[in-house]
Specification:
Length: 254
Amino acid sequence: MGARTAETQAIYDKFTQKKQASAERLAGLKAALDQQQRLNRALRVGRVDPLVVALLNRLASIQLSDHFRVVCTHALYAYEAAAGVRLDADALATRDIDLLWDTRKRIIFSTQLARVDSFMLGLLKKVDASFRMRQSQKYTAVNKDGFEVDIIRREQMDDDPHPIKLSDEDDDFWVVQARRANVLLYAPGFSAVIVATNGTNGTMARMNTVHPATFVAFKRWMAGLADRDALKRRRDVLQADAVQILLNEYLPQV
């Protein structure tokens, strides 16, 4: 900074004060997080597969969370967490997670992904090394336990390229178009902190999804599709009814 003067000394002192304040704040936040995780474990509030929590935290750690919305059954965990209730297991049964990718931000996404010198499947492998692309369904990655991660997108519109691959790596996601996914993409967002099942130190993550009312309307639309599997249609209705009750009785403020 050059020779020491009253001005440069004042700049240095201001910097060190801010640095110390930031360090103290970080230490306080870490302590609060540790305490909350202990409470989560002691009170057994965990509900979500630890793999899902780890995946969401991984995306957050490299600043990719804003590029995805959870739009499947797992969104119910965010709604019940915000409502402070527990939904029946029948409504929550699933072994996959659907991530809606925002094609409008694809350039920013590619830049951020390149910055961490990785690719989307590589990110999943850092959560669980057994993840592999399903060769017959290149928008799906599956691990050794049969848990699936699907990455979907809105139907092609505006200047969307098609098809779209998330990176230049040979073995990575080709994002699949989903019917009416634009409704989910443009809908108001909803976010809540979810907790992994007990035995994982009460680990938490923030889940970004769609507004509960949008979820209800979309599930009712899906239930009305003539080509949808009958079992899935029944579950669509069950989930829509459950979230509507949450909206009416526990989440009128959202």
